[in-house]
Amino acid sequence: MIEPLTYEDVAEDYPKVFQGGPPRCGMGIGLGWENLLRELLQAIEDLLPAESDFKVDQIKEKFGGLRFYIFSQTLPEKTLKRIRKLIDFTEGLSFVTCEVCGSRGYAGTESSRYGWIKTLCPEHVEERSRGYGPDGTRRPTPYVEPK
What we know:
This protein is α+β, with helices and mostly antiparallel strands. The protein has helices at 7-10, 34-47, 77-94, 122-130, and strands spanning 4-5, 27-30, 55-62, 65-71, 106-110, 117-120, 143-144. The protein folds into two domains: 4-94; 106-144, no CATH class.
């Protein structure tokens, strides 16, 4: 099981980013992306004024990569562009960073009827393909490396 990073783990360290409260649609990513997320949050924190309508809407994993959705109606367009470039860069890095441990990884598909895509390092690919997670729980389907 991928250990989740929660809003409570990061919120107090970035008061300007989370001045609007927790993400409206939640937060769900693995601990392996914590450094990526913290670097992004710090860069955004440094760009934001003391008070703004900036809001983090959602932080999640989708199709093997980090997704970070924001909202603001009053920040200058120049600031929003810089923030969006930071988000794009960080999302790109997530596709080569294991979501479990933060090591170099790659996106691949689990062979299940759902075809989940996860970004994992070789060690965590092997764990999942053996059918057991790091916590010893049974995994229902093996992991298939991309071709």
